[in-house]
Design goal:
Blueprint lengths: L1 H12 L16 H8 L3 E4 L8 H11 L4 E6 L4 H10 L3 E4 L9
Parallel strand pairs: 1-2, 2-3
Length: 103
């Protein structure tokens, strides 16, 4: 989701200790991006067009074992989370919105 990705970028750019080196809508050129940018941490969605996030984690970890990968996803099903961790993800965060009722 383009708008959500841009919102996250703007948020992270406000944090002085974080340097965002890239944000991509898919994993099509993933090996080239990682080799060039050398990120410490990757925030990865499970549901991506083309190569899904779980397969992307496998690819990343096969060549870049020190990169930490946090899955950021709407999926809270145990099998998807388990698959992501087994693929090499460090952990996961759920994209849940909380709504407050105004009185």
């Amino acid at each position: 989701n383009h708008n959500f990705r841009e919102s996250l970028l703007q948020y992270f750019q406000l944090i002085p200790d974080i340097q965002v080196v890239g944000a991509y809508p898919d994993c099509d050129e993933l090996p080239e991006h990682i080799s060039k940018l050398r990120p410490d941490v990757i925030l990865m969605d499970i549901d991506m067009p083309g190569i899904n996030g779980i397969e992307a984690v496998k690819q990343i970890k096969s060549q870049h074992v020190n990169v930490e990968i946090i899955m950021f996803t709407v999926f809270d099903e145990n099998d998807k989370v388990f698959d992501a961790i087994c693929a090499g993800a460090t952990g996961y965060l759920l994209k849940k919105q909380q709504y407050r009722k105004n009185s």
